[in-house]
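A sample follows:
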Amino acid sequence: MLFALSVNNASAQYRVKGFVYDSSRVFPIERVTVQSTGGEMSMTDSAGSYTILVGEKDSIWFSYLGKPTPKYPVLKIADVRQFDIALHLKPDVMREVKIRTRNYKEDSLQNRRDYAKAFDFRRPSLETMTSVTSSGVGFDVQEIIRLFQFKKNKSMERFRERLEQEERDKFVDRRFNKGLVKRLTGADNDEVIADFMRRYRPTFEFTSGTSDYDFQYFIKIAYQEYRKQVASAPAF
C-alpha cells in the first residue's frame, strides 16, 4: 500500500522547463524568479533557462523586478518540456536587460584591467631600447636587460596570447549560446544540441562581424545541414 502511494505521488510530479525572453523573443532574461503554488522556486540563468519541479495540481508564475505574471496551471501547459514565455518590460528595464545579456565588452575591459601587465606586454626591440635627447642617442639599460630575458619574454607573450584567445572564445560563447540554438532549431535533446554546437561553432571573426538577422539565419541553415549529415551517416 505504501509502495503504491509512493508511485502515485511520483507520477504526479512534472518538471517544467523553458526559457524567458523579452517581448522581442531575442534577448534572454536572467534572474527571473519562477515559483509554484506548491512552494517550489527556481530562477533563470544567464541564457534565460529555468527548470522547476511541480505537482499536477500546481500553477506556476514568473516574477521579475518585483512584478509577477499571471499564474499558469500545470495541466494547461501544452508541453512542460518547452514552456517559453516573453515578458513585456518597460523601455528603461529593456535597456538594462540588453546590457546585462550582452556585457562582453564590460567583461573584456575588466579582464584587461586585471591583466594589464600581460596585455600591455611587448617584446623589447631596438626602438624601445633607444631614445633621442638633446645630448644625442641613448640606450635604456632596463630595456636591454629585458631583451635578454628570453624565457620570461616568451612566457609573457604566450600568456597574453592565451588571454586574447579566451576573450574571443567568451564572445562566441555569449552569442552562440544553447538557449538561442534551442529556440531557433526546435531541438530538445541536449546531446544533439551539444554535438551540433561543437561541429558548427562559428569563428570569432564571423560572430563579431555578422548582424543578428544573418547570425540567426546561419544557425537555422547550419542545423538543417547538420540534420542531413546525421541522417545520412552510416549506422554501426
Remarks:
- The longest helix spans residues 150-175.
- The beta strands are 13-22, 33-36, 41-43, 49-55, 59-64, 67-68, 72-73, 85-87, 130-133, 136-139.
- The chain has three domains: 2-96, 103-173, 176-232.
- Residues 103-173 form one domain.
